[in-house]
Amino acid sequence: QSMDSTLHYIHNDSDLSTNSSFSPEEERKSKVQDVVPQALLDQYLSMTDPSRAQTVDTEIAKHCAYSLPGVALTLGRQNWHCLKDTYETLASDMQWKVRRTLAFSIHELAVILGDQLTAGDLVPVFNGFLKDLDEVRIGVLKHLHDFLKLLHVDKRREYLYQLQEFLVTDNSRNWRFRAELAEQLILLLDLYSARDIYDYLRPIAFSLCADKVSSVRWISYKLVSEMVKKLYMASTSTFVVDLMNELVEKFCRCHKWSGRQTFVFICQTISEDDCLPMDQFA
């Protein structure tokens, strides 16, 4: 009950803002809270001290990162100022395992903190993870939809320009990365308008349909069929007609047999999932 009441109580924005020019005394006061014994929180926050990590346990920062969403949930969003500096320290840790751990849980932390704090404090960290090693990027990719759905519409649209970057990986043989991208794009169709889907997601979907790995292609056929369904249901019908014409042009009339085979598989998926009325399909 006390945890619930903590979570439902939110300070004004002025209380949440932190001033980088704090004196040491003010810095200490900014990390004071009354949810758990202060000594326990101080002990947890000290885990990110570099000297402690080197002399006590090299894995300590990873354990600290793993526990952070739970600590944030316990303290409540009104006490996020106690954890903010520690979170940013961990997000820039030299060990990729620490950053990877945070990348896999940033969507959960966003739910705990709410949209205002997420936009101010988590989005910059999220953007940094997008440019990180593949081992870190996969964490944000696996929960891309979960994170983006929490953002304001305008902020969410900014990521349309970056989705293309997920096609490029450190190792081109990392096909599971592209398969995960296709899975996430299916979920992302609900977050964007018909025009955004046609302009930004369609080129990525077509690229994935021509992937060298069959597992990636199979998920991509489902992605294209869902795209057809979404665009058909949109009030602007020209997008779905343009999309189908491009499918015919790009795959049905492809000089390679694999492209023509892709067209048949896409047709099969569209038919099986009832994405179009049969007269329109014909």
Automatic annotation (TrEMBL):
Top-level taxon of the source organism: Eukaryota
InterPro entries, per database record: ARM-like, ARM-type_fold, PP2A_Regulatory_Subunit_A
Keywords, ordered alphabetically: Repeat
Ranges for region Disordered: 11-32
GO cellular component, one term: cytoplasm
Range of residues in the leader sequence: none
Molecular functions (GO terms): protein phosphatase regulator activity
PANTHER family: SERINE/THREONINE-PROTEIN PHOSPHATASE PP2A 65 KDA REGULATORY SUBUNIT, SERINE_THREONINE-PROTEIN PHOSPHATASE 4 REGULATORY SUBUNIT 1
Annotated protein name in UniProt: PP4R1 phosphatase
The species this protein was found in: Tachuris rubrigastra
Gene field: Ppp4r1_3
